[in-house]
Specification:
Layout lengths: L1 H15 L3 H12 L3 H12 L2 E5 L2 E6 L2 E4 L2 E3 L1 H4 L4 E3 L22
Antiparallel strand pairs: 1-2, 1-5, 2-3, 3-4
Length: 106
């Protein structure tokens, strides 16, 4: 599953950007205020659980963490205040239109 998630992240960035500069701009959006939305995208597509990492929302699947840049290495976050946000009602609001974020595989 790890490889599929990384492929999904790359596919998502490449769908919205074509040049290295555009890819950096997409990453910047999801690293500076849009991280919650990207974690939600990973939740919807992979059941990756959102975690709060010092105000930056990342997603955990199994024993790995992810954001728009790919895998967030464990040595960067262990013991540094990472908390699941399962209690966050927006994550589990069944009335939200999650389909807007889903990318259909071809």
């Amino acid at each position: 599953m790890h490889k599929k998630i990384l492929e999904f992240i790359d596919s998502y960035k490449n769908k919205h950007a074509k040049t290295p500069e555009e890819i950096k701009a997409v990453e910047s959006v999801f690293l500076n205020g849009g991280c919650y939305v990207f974690a939600k995208i990973l939740w919807i597509n992979f059941w990756a659980i959102p975690y709060d990492f010092k105000g930056h929302i990342i997603a955990r699947h199994g024993d790995k963490f992810y954001d728009i840049t790919g895998e967030v290495k464990l040595n960067m976050i262990i013991g540094k205040g990472v908390f699941p946000i399962l209690e966050e009602p927006r994550i589990f609001n069944l009335y939200e239109s999650f389909d807007n974020f889903k990318i259909k595989s071809e």
